[in-house]
Amino acid sequence: MKYYPLPSELFRFNRQRFMEQIPTGSLAIFHSNDLMPRSGDTFFPFRQNNDLYYLSGIEQEETVLLLFPGCTKSGFEEVLFIRKPNERLLRYEGEQLTPTKARRFSGIEKVLWLDEYEAILRELILLSERVYLNLDEHDRFHSPVLTRNQRMAQQLNAQYPAHQYQRSGPLVKRLRMVKSPAEVDAIQQAVNITGQAFTEVLKMLEPGVQEYEVEATITASFLQQRATGHAYDPIIASGANTCVLHYTNNNKPCREGELLLMDFGAEYAFYAADITRTIPVSGRFSERQRAVYDAVLKVQRESIKMLLPGTDLDEYHREVGRLMEAELLALGLIDSTDVKNQDPKQPAYKKYFMHGTSHHLGLDVHDPGLRYEPVQAGNVFTCEPAIYIPEEKIGIRLENNILVTEKGPIDLSARVPIEASEIEAWMNGAS
Ligand code: GLY
Ligand code: MN
Ligand code: MN
Asked: What fold, for 181-427?
C-alpha cells in the first residue's frame, strides 16, 4: 500500500456498530471481491470489496470476515480468514499479509488461514440462529456477473436451506452514510491531493497542450502524494468535449480560447475525492465564459448552504433547479415563455443542466445512501451544478466536496482554487 493505514479503531468501531444492529446469535459473512481476469495470465487491478474493507481495513484478496455477536464458541465473535502465502506467491508478488499484520490493521484478534474457513463455517453456521449475507446491493447498478458474495450466498442457500437469511446491505449502507472523523480525514487527504494536482495543471496548461498531458500531470501528482491512483476515470475535456458528460478519451489538443473541464479525484486509503474545475486554456476567460462560470459558481455557493441536517434531497434538487432557472434566464439561454410552458417533469433548465447536483461520497465515488431520508450530520456530498451549451462549446461544471455538520456545511475542497479571478491569477503566474 502507498497510503498510511487508517487507525484500526475505525474498523473496530464499524464492526461494533454493525454487530449492535443484528440480534445476538446471528452470523454475518463478508467476502472480498474476486480478482477479475483480463486476458492471458493477467488480471485487472484488484479492488477490495468496500464493505469488507469498511469492517476490517484489509485490502488483500481472498479474505473473509465472520461476525457473530453472542457466539457460544468462545473467541469466535470476530474471525478473519486470510490467504496463506506459498512459495510461488512470495516469489512472484513478494510480501503477503500475515496474521500479525492483519491483526494490527483490523484490530481482530482471531486471524486464521483461509484453508480453515470451510470447517469453521460449518460449525458456526449450525450454532447460529440466522445468517446475514452481504449481497453487494446497489439501487442504480446491476452487474451481469455475480460477485463472490452473491455466489457464496447461493451456495449457502443450497446447503443450508432451513436457515433464516437476512440482508446486511441496508445495515452497512446506513453506517457508511455517516462518516467518522477518521473517514473525513481520509476524504480530506484525497481532496488535498486532488487540489495539489489541480494547481500543477494551472501552472502547465497553455494552448497546444494535449488533454492526455493534463491527465499525465494529474496522475504523476497523485502518485507522488501517496494516492493509490484515480478514484474513477478522469474526465479531461476541452472545447466541445466539455459538454460530453462522461468524456474520458482525453486525446484532443487544448486550443486557445477554449475551456478545459477536468473532473478528477484521487483515491487515498480507499476514500475518494470527486472534484471538477473548468478553466480557460489561454489563462483568461472570455466575457461570455466568465458570465456562465459565475452563474454556475453562484448556484454552487447557494446549493452548498442547503446541505444541512434535515434537508430533504428531493426538495434540495428542486430548489437547485429554481436557482439554475434564474441564472439561465439572466444569461438569456431560456426565457419566461419556456418556463411558463415547461413540463414540470422536464423543466426548461434541464436543457442546459441535465444531471443531479449531489451524491454521497466515501469509499465509492457514488457512495451508497438512502435517497429518501433526510440529510444527516456526518454525510459527505458532492455539489456539482453545471451549465452545458454545446452550440457555444461551453460546458462548465464546478464540483466541491461537502461535509454536513450540525454547525453548517464544511467545504472540504475550500482550498482548491475556484474563483475565476483566482484561477486567472494562478494561470498567469501571480499566485
Ligand atoms: N466524477 C463522477 C461524478 O461527478 O459524479
Ligand atoms: Mn465528478
Ligand atoms: Mn460527482
From this structure: Creatine Amidinohydrolase (3.90.230)
